[in-house]
Amino acid sequence: MPAPPQAAGHATAPVVARDAAPAFSPLYQQIKVLLTHSLQGGEWRPGELIPSELELAARFKVSQGTVRKAIDALADDRLLVRRQGKGTFVATHAEREVRFRFLRLVPDNGKSGGMARRFIDCRRQRAPADVARALALRAGDPTLQVRRVLSFEGRPVVLDDIWLPGHAFKGLTAERLSEYRGPMYRLFETEFGVRMIRADEKLRAVGADAESAALLEVEPGAPLLSVERLSFTYGDRPLELRRGLYDTSAHYYRNELS
Distance of alpha carbon 61 from its chain centroid, rounded? Predict the structure, then answer.
């Protein structure tokens, strides 16, 4: 099989990492790896137009069809977005179809939107052992812990405890979180260069303790859905641990399987 292609006319062409696509992978997969490295390296920022298929084909010295297949694969992974007549863009959490990708709670009445958030706490502290393991940190490394409540139509529905690696989110404060009107993941993109691209979740049923019951305005012991989410950026690097408690008395958790 051909070796990973080099970029035409680029002295510093990206090279497939040792832990990336193996040498025997299909050519389009190798191009996908190279494009992912360009995304990871910030060559094209979230929301930006990437070069055309013809330009990329010339750069990598492959056919336009190979590039198209690689871009299709990245679009399936929601890293790129095709727009008819405009080109292909780097996906961003500012787009509505991406914005609520990681929030699967849907009201029973079918209405969407109307979500409000209230930040209760935002503080820097050393990583507890379980958080450090999840985020691939050393025990005691600095982390940022954020606690917030999400409300729908004035009713609190989600209590989130969020841990972020301190080194990746220097300067993030409760004031900045409260002032920002867009999605939190969009703030991560624009101000910290961090893009969440996938997440693993674990769900279980729990009873509300006294503190969570007070914040969610339910009775102690009321049934809640516990959702633990570990979110990853490029290279499967974990950059957020989120533990949420969901009041599903008027909402349900929706997941689409394919």
Answer: 32
